[in-house]
Design brief:
2 domains; 3-stranded parallel sheet; 16% strand; binds nicotinamide-adenine-dinucleotide; globular; Rossmann fold
Length: 283
């Protein structure tokens, strides 16, 4: 019987720990503040932004909300980022992605001070991760590591296969697994014979963005399967990149969707906000 890794329980534990750390800072007169910037009113982005603000309120982090019109220029957004970079009361800055097509996302990411980049997307933080320096780490892959560790799953020496090489999930995921001494293989859309590679994985991370793509043929007996994918099917129900029902009898542990990786992202954002107090000091 596979262990169903409970992301809800683990993310709740992490938020409680953050709440205690925030209270300890407050007792020393330090308030943590996250600036959340949203451009336009894409419903999915609004849900994410609201959930982030709710989590901040829960752990005791002040959130500042900037809701900009869809027509805001790149220059105006850069000016806001610059203001927030230079505001000593702001510890973290989060610009909700995606941005409208007339704004260069990479330019905005690079404009955020690396010391306030709680999403961990700035090239400085990506570089810091790859050479083992402290910095902000992308929240979703950081959440995967917590799910593994807090479920007692050893990473060191394990054959880890990551499916997907995006900047926000696949690449940082592979760097984090490497940091934990896993033996890491990164696969992607041009990989030849994916099944041959994934079926040797002790730990398989699916982040390819294809609903229920990973069936039992892709998975080794007794493997740990972490499903990063999130999709809504025709009946408006959530599912992942893994065919959970097909795979679950073959594995030793698996994350469900919903209730697995998805809920970890915001918890890890809260951790990054707590960490920002110390990281800001390095600016
Ligand atoms: P992406 O589209 O940017 O990247 C997908 C990656 O998968 C690419 O590198 C591509 O090469 C690879 N890929 C695509 N088809 C493949 C195939 N057939 N075989 C092997 N590799 C293949 O997606 P992303 O932003 O990395 O997100 C991946 C999934 O994770 C999506 O379902 C997304 O919704 C989800 N996601 C979840 C969270 C969360 O909080 N849980 C956060 C970010 C993304």
């Amino acid at each position: 019987m596979a262990l169903i890794i409970d992301g809800r329980k683990i993310s709740a534990q992490i938020k409680e720990e953050c709440k205690e750390q925030v209270a300890a800072y407050q007792a020393r007169g330090i308030e943590i503040c996250l600036a959340v910037v949203q451009v336009g009113s894409d419903p999915a982005s609004s849900v994410y932004v609201n959930n982030k603000k709710k989590a901040c309120a829960y752990v005791g982090i002040r959130s500042l909300s900037y809701e900009l019109d869809e027509t805001v220029t790149e220059e105006e957004l850069l000016q806001l980022v610059d203001r927030l970079n230079n505001d000593p009361a702001v510890n973290g800055i989060l610009v909700q992605l995606p941005l409208p097509a007339h704004i260069d996302e990479n330019k905005i990411i690079r404009a955020i001070s690396p010391m306030k980049d709680v999403d961990g997307f700035h090239p400085y933080n990506v570089g810091a991760l790859s050479i083992g320096l402290k910095g902000f780490v992308s929240c979703t892959p950081a959440g995967v590591i917590q799910l593994l560790k807090r479920s007692g799953i050893e990473i060191a020496g394990k054959n880890c296969v990551v499916i997907g090489r995006s900047n926000i999930v696949g690449k940082p995921m592979s760097m984090l697994l490497l940091r934990e001494n896993g033996t890491v293989t990164v696969t992607h859309s041009r990989t030849k014979d994916l099944q041959e590679i994934t079926s040797k994985a002790d730990i398989l991370i699916a982040a390819l963005g294809k609903p229920k793509f990973i069936t039992k043929e892709y998975v080794k007996e007794g493997a740990v399967v972490i499903d990063v994918g999130i999709h809504r099917n025709a009946e408006n129900k959530l599912c992942g990149d893994v065919d959970f029902e097909d795979v679950k009898e073959k594995v030793s542990a698996i994350t469900p969707v919903p209730g697995g990786v998805g809920v970890m992202t915001i918890a890890m954002l809260m951790c990054n906000c707590v960490a920002s107090v110390e990281i800001n000091e390095r600016a």
